[in-house]
Structure prediction request, 392 residues.
Amino acid sequence: MRLGLHYHIPAHIRHDGIHTPAHFGRFIDGLARHCGQVTCFLHSPRNAEIHLLDYALQGKNISLVNIGPHDSALRRTLFSQRYVNPIRARRLTLDVMMVRGPSPLLPSIVRAVQPTPTVLLLVGDYLAGVDDLPQPRWRKEAIRLWAYWNNRGQLRAAQKSLTFVNSRKLFDEMKPLALPLIETRTTTLTSADFYHREDTCREKPYHILYAGRLDRGKGLLVIGEAIAKLVAGGRDVHFELAGWQEPGDPILDELQELASQNGFGDRLHYLGYKKVGTELFTCYRNADIFVNASLASEGFPRTIWEAMANSLPVVATRVGSIPHYAEGAVELIPPRDADALAERISALLDDPGRRRELIKKGMLLAQQNTLEVQSEKMVAGIRAWLDDTQQR
Prediction:
């Protein structure tokens, strides 16, 4: 199968091959193991993004087509034809075109590649996080209108495509449309990434970890408030963050200010951006509890799979697919509730039996959702759909 692939994450070519962020590159390599050829139609990076392209694709059957610079979403929307032309020109060399979304170019690409069949992989919802953007109200409303327009185009594209979703909420919303729809679980984990231990919290201070994108939609200020309550209550905890900052979002500065005002400035540690693999997984292995406090709808964050695979008990908010996929392996709390988060962390610090139970359940669940398993399922689903379409 000759697969085309687009997402709004950039890539570029170095002396040792095609480079992308590792969490995306692992996904591409996973698909490539089950395809004859994968052609990636990706943007060239901005200067500030080059350091994030830390993974060299391994598959020898992967090629890169540069579709233009990773400009603003508005520019990519207004001048969409400029970006999709390289894809249109190669559409007949593909058996199927996959577009990961939401993405500014998704509707335009699906139109441009016809009659080549299209597959969508939807991993989020632009509309869900608008209210939490660090923008003035007028700009939020403009973004909301654009997100609504993009979502309408995405739904129209789905009517012509096979659609995978990694969110139970999205699955339930799209199911009545009678589309070819498959619920999936996206991950970056390989079978070689697992680290086994029976328990954490063996010595003080206890390390509470968040990993992922640093933006306010991830509830970082809520985590900060919970840490403040724990420290005020005499708990010997440190809060560590590993990930990349979003341009224009001063959330890390705000978090540091909150920590200083609440007397735990010396207990807040930004570890910087960590490459998926040994560099990032070492952060998990040095931690005692993992926290994800997302405010709004999520698919299922890959970082929760990573925490489980590295034997960490997890506390997460009851949003998106987290309660549907966690299957008793995560302590769930309401979003935006610092008191509940502090209480759950405190309870885990005192309850080694519950920690060991969460670690065991999380490990078993993560082992069922490795990249090898999910990539094979996804490609098999695409092949079956193509065969069924051709027989009609």
